[in-house]
């Protein structure tokens, strides 16, 4: 029975990652995630990547402005603010709680 429970949990995680496609804009305050892809105009994508938002990078939401825009992130060892519309185009995989 425990094996079925574990299998179901893995299937839920796969469904969450592949079907729901969470974005950076979906993360809660304090939540960490790994960037999977950036799906936007080439010039915007390039600018985001120049700021360190590249696939494989871990980011954490550290602050959200009162009206929800912009979002302040911790990327590597620095703080970065991005517009919610840009954050919505960045697919992430939420980090597991330690």
Describe, in short, the structure shown.
With 98 residues, the chain is an alpha+beta fold. It has helices spanning 2-20, 42-50, 84-87; strands at 32-38, 58-64, 71-75, 78-82, 90-94. It has a single domain (22-94), classed as SH3 type barrels, CATH 2.30.30.90.
Walkthrough of the structure:
The structure is a single chain. The protein is α+β, with helices and mostly antiparallel strands and 98 residues long. It has one domain: SH3 type barrels, CATH 2.30.30.90. The chain is built from three helices and five strands; from the N terminus they run αβαβββαβ. It has helices at 2-20, 42-50, 84-87; strands spanning 32-38, 58-64, 71-75, 78-82, 90-94. It has a five-stranded antiparallel sheet. The longest helix is centred in the N-terminal third of the chain and has 19 residues, at 2-20. The protein is globular, with a radius of gyration of 15 Å.
